[in-house]
Design a protein that fits this description.
InterPro entries: Man6P_isomerase_rcpt-bd_dom_sf, MRH_dom, OS-9-like, OS9-like_dom, Yos9_DD. The chain contains 7 helices and 26 strands. The chain is of the alpha+beta class and 472 residues long. Strands 16, 17, 18, 19, 20, 21, 22, 23, 24 and 25 form a 10-stranded mixed beta sheet that branches. Strands 7-6-5-4-26 form a 5-stranded antiparallel beta sheet. The protein has a 5-stranded mixed beta sheet with strand order 8-9-12-14-13, covered by helices on one side.
Length: 472
Amino acid sequence: MGRLAKFLAIAIVLNELTSGYKLMHDSNMSSEYSINYVSQNVFQNTILNNASLMADGEILNFGDETSCFKPNVRSETVDSDFWELKLQEKRVLNKSSEVITKKLSGKCLIYPNGFWNYSFCYGKSVAQFTMPSDMQGLHYLLGKFDIPDHDDLRLVHDLGGYYVADTGSYGDVCVETDAMREVEIQYVCKPGVNEARILAVREVKLCRYAITVAIPELCYLDLFSTEGKNKSVHSIVCTRDVRSTDFDSVYMINYQPFFLGHGFYYLQNHSDRNDSDSDISSASMLLYTSDLVFSEENADLHKSEQLFLERAVAAFQELTSQRLLFAPDGQIFSTGDTVSWVTEVVNSGGEKLCVLRVTIDEASTANLSFDQILPGSIPIRENIVHYTRAIPQEVELFSELSTEPDLVDESPKRDRTFEVSSGIIVSERRTEHTYDKLKQESTEQENKNNLSPGFDAQEEVEEGTEVEHDEL
């Protein structure tokens, strides 16, 4: 196993222990756990030597190098009486079933998400497709549902709170697993959402999907409406023998992994970005778990490059869906913002594969390209090349929009244009507010990289809508 793969394995195991079916750092549910890394001395003195703390948790060992303390979490609910809570859950589930059926019966929800689009028809099926139904394109059945039956629904309580779950089975066979695809619909209360809509689609495991659907009326029910009032964050504390591998310890301390699916992880850098004298890069990275082979100059793209491009587009869509794209001031990317974003892509051994660039214009049209890293290239230290925020009120533009230098010998080879959506609605009347981060440093870096060219295709996506069955 690669060194970085070991680091990811620890995060994934902790994620499964604490989150079950749902992903850590879900974009619609707030996690009750945080994972922190400390030195061995701090771990020994504050954890191992604390008898009362040790009695209320457990130590998880990952080989001889890494240990983590996970606290035991007791049930946190608004009702102290266990049996009263169970009766309340049963009542809420019955009422939730009626609400969901009334809201979605005879309807389909459409979720455009870049390269892949999704349709969920209540009581029927979930499909994944690339083109409208009247055109030729890829189409996969993710799962089928029986005629709506309240007995099939489950009220689930996890780290994010309560949601109603329904599982669809007997989807198309997955080539990688030789098993049928499966999907879980998770009905949630999402404050601020005024109509039934799909909030997110995640591939939580290979060919196993989770779709989060907001039902506004659920927010009026007990348990859903009281979520978040009595919750606290529990810290998982880990330590690592830094003498084992300097490479590993840097990743363990500075990066938090997020699973994007499609063979990608987002390694979010959480080192001290305020230390201007630090030599540590504040740039986040992408990890790609499959092979990437570059074609010879002027040759057709290698099949691994074509696959990488398709997967990278889908992964970036998931990155924005999970609200992991931030402006330099810390605010989350919003519809109407213009962005020029760059990152290095590494493999599970920590080796750099390529540089990936994404630009997003004010119409939320994005262009993604990737280029080979040549020897002597300057490492990327910041992800944001420029950022222009669209805001609803008029303010004066206070700095000029910076642009990336032209790539050397650019050609339409390794790039794709597609649509992105932050899920955040801003006013029709917009003015721009520009941030420039890299300026001269990014210019010098781009001029020295001498990167090879990219490729071109077009995808069109509109906002998610609700339609009747016979419209599909």
